[in-house]
Design a protein that fits this description.
It is a single chain. The chain has no helices and ten strands. It is mostly beta strands. Strands 1, 2, 3, 4, 5, 6, 9 and 10 form an eight-stranded antiparallel beta sheet that branches. It has a two-stranded antiparallel ribbon with strand order 7-8.
Length: 103
């Protein structure tokens, strides 16, 4: 199985060709392509550094709402705050590994 580890938005993702991944908001319009540097490429038993991942931007969307409820007992204090994280949905097209490999 061939897959790669990419980093975007401060997070690392394991991706394979044909996967659909939600990442933090990217400034790329739907229908366009985005390219990512590969931290590690695994092809069967071979591990290599570097390479490229090409992905098509499917849509820009919002995640489910996350509610944070602050409460202090016996004090009459409660606050409700929430947010919806903005996401970009990517469809992984190609994974190109580097030529050098590790043991």
């Amino acid at each position: 199985m061939t897959y790669a580890i990419i980093k975007t938005g401060g997070r690392q993702y394991r991706v394979a060709e044909g996967d659909t991944v939600d990442v933090d908001l990217l400034d790329v319009e739907p229908g366009k392509t985005a390219t990512f540097e590969v931290l590690m490429h695994i092809d069967g038993g071979k591990i290599s550094d570097g390479g490229k991942v090409t992905a098509e931007v499917v849509e820009q969307r919002k995640d489910k709402k996350v509610i944070a409820f602050k409460y202090r007992r016996r004090k009459g204090y409660h606050r409700t705050v929430g947010h919806r994280r903005k996401l970009t949905r990517l469809k992984i097209k190609t994974i190109t590994g580097a030529s050098k490999s590790k043991k």
